[in-house]
Design brief:
10% strand, 155 residues, Arc Repressor Mutant, subunit A, globular
Length: 155
């Protein structure tokens, strides 16, 4: 790795870390006070609301242990934000659905997210924000591709 690669890697690491810490500091108190959620709960609820992934698949994409996701799902279910049911025709599979209360919580969380992040994102401007989102999407896709390559046995 060249010195410039190391510098870029370091800057990426620090940038991601500081962005996550800022997001956590800015939003977690609001989410906790208002909805009893943290950022992990919010992201998990987003996956349930917008995908048909099961618990193990969500654990995989969130890079969390299965038991952690199961515990979080249980907590969200007890809070009335989601339902877990057994899939018709396959008793091993769980179907996850966001409840109307969960949808309201997501809407409130998005409002909090917008209120907290709007000033920062407005300063970026639409073109830089779009570039940031595209770059993050590319990083995630490259990581998923690397994971798939590592998991594929060589012939």
């Amino acid at each position: 790795m060249q010195a410039t690669d190391r510098d870029l890697t370091r800057r990426y690491l620090h940038g991601v870390w500081n962005a996550m810490r800022h997001l956590d500091t800015l939003l977690t108190p609001r989410l906790t006070e208002e909805l009893g959620l943290d950022l992990t709960d919010l992201v998990l609820l987003e996956y349930v609301a917008h995908t048909d992934l099961g618990p193990s698949q969500i654990a995989s994409v969130m890079r969390l242990p299965d038991h952690t996701v199961s515990r979080l799902l249980g907590r969200l279910e007890l809070s009335g934000l989601l339902q877990r049911t057994v899939a018709t025709g396959d008793a091993r599979r769980r179907v996850l659905r966001v409840t109307p209360t969960g949808r309201q919580a997501l809407a409130s969380a998005h409002a909090e997210l917008s209120a907290g992040l709007a000033p920062l994102l407005r300063d970026l401007g639409p073109q830089r924000l779009q570039a940031l989102v595209e770059t993050l999407t590319l990083v995630v896709a490259a990581e998923a591709e690397a994971d798939a390559t590592a998991a594929t046995p060589e012939t």
